[in-house]
């Protein structure tokens, strides 16, 4: 089994660009693959490999006193989810489009999964899902508002157009793992909102710790790995990710005439260019050929085949 680990931390790291090559070399030496983003505001990453190797990378990161308390989440997969290791330096570890918004300076009030139900049941609390529209469509919390954003960069415009610090006295934010709503809470505070809360550990921690019978969550939670979506207990559900637009596709949606395995779904069929379709078809053929070759390599050779090659 391959261990997949996700982590992030908002912390001042003005010198981390200098350590980019060192971190990349260490991950490669451990045969760990994935992506780690570095910025002055912190670190954000998803890596995969054998447990001892992944733990070695985490220990390497935590050797820096600023990352000593770096938290991570774990999942497992049978197949490698990444082809190579990338360590990139960016203006933001999660792109809001406003580098001046810094959770290291101010952030909303963390709310544990155990206290979340009470908070969002308060009629005076405005509950907002900070994720993108395709994520919200397959699951969200009861009474949560959907900003209907396509990318996180659009969230500030949603706030400016729809929320008022004078009217919305209490605002509760949530996202998949905590990173987006943590930054969104910093933005709201900068806009003059006084009581801003966000779910600590995100939806995933809530689904892991809150019993189903007590849950105010409806549907499934989209995740950015090979599982596509999970439900309570982080149990995997049956979804497929469209290789063209990235939207989650249910079994029901696969009956649409606009769904084509490995090519398109109802969300992107009408906007798919012929050039992109040809590239996806070629990639699909390459994957099928690779699987065929892998299967042939695992098939025991007959005595005739052995003697012919010996």
TrEMBL record:
Gene that produces this protein: trhO
InterPro entries, sorted: Rhodanese-like_dom, Rhodanese-like_dom_sf, TrhO, TRHO_N
EC annotation from Swiss-Prot or TrEMBL: 1.14.-.-
Protein name per UniProt: tRNA uridine(34) hydroxylase
Catalytic activity of the protein: uridine(34) in tRNA + AH2 + O2 = 5-hydroxyuridine(34) in tRNA + A + H2O
Source species: Scytonema hofmannii FACHB-248
Region (Disordered): 291-310
Lineage summary: Bacteria, Bacillati, Cyanobacteriota, Cyanophyceae, Nostocales
Segments crossing the lipid bilayer: none
HAMAP family reported in the protein's UniProt record: TrhO (MF_00469)
Domain Rhodanese span(s) in chain numbering: 121-215
Role: Catalyzes oxygen-dependent 5-hydroxyuridine (ho5U) modification at position 34 in tRNAs.
Protein family: Belongs to the TrhO family.
Record's keyword terms, sorted: Oxidoreductase, tRNA processing
């Amino acid at each position: 089994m391959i261990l997949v680990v996700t982590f992030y931390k908002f912390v001042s790291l003005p010198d981390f660009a200098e350590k980019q090559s060192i971190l990349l070399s260490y991950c490669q030496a451990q045969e760990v693959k994935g992506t780690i983003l570095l910025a002055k505001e912190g670190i954000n990453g998803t890596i995969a490999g054998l447990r001892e190797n992944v733990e070695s990378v985490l220990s390497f990161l935590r050797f820096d006193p600023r990352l000593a308390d770096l938290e991570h989440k774990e999942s497992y997969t049978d197949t490698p989810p990444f082809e190579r290791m990338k360590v990139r330096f960016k203006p933001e570890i999660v792109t809001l489009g406003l580098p001046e918004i810094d959770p290291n300076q101010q952030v909303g009030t963390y709310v544990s999964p155990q206290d979340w139900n009470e908070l969002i049941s308060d009629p005076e609390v405005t509950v907002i899902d900070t994720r993108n529209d395709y994520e919200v469509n397959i699951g969200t919390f009861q009474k949560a508002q959907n900003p209907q954003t396509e990318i996180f960069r659009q969230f500030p415009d949603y706030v400016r157009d729809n929320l008022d610090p004078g009217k919305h006295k209490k605002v509760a934010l949530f996202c998949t793992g905590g990173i987006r709503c943590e930054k969104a809470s910093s933005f709201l505070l900068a806009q003059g909102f006084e009581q801003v809360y966000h779910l600590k550990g995100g939806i995933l921690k809530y689904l892991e710790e809150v019993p189903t019978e007590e849950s105010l969550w409806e549907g499934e939670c989209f995740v950015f790995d090979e599982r596509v979506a999970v439900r309570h207990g982080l149990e995997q559900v049956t979804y497929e990710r469209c290789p063209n637009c990235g939207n989650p596709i249910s079994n029901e949606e696969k009956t649409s005439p606009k769904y084509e395995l490995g090519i398109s779904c109802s969300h992107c069929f009408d906007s798919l260019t012929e050039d992109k379709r040809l590239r996806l078809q070629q990639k699909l053929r390459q994957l099928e050929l690779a699987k065929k070759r892998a299967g042939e390599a695992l098939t025991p050779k007959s005595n005739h085949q052995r003697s012919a090659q010996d």
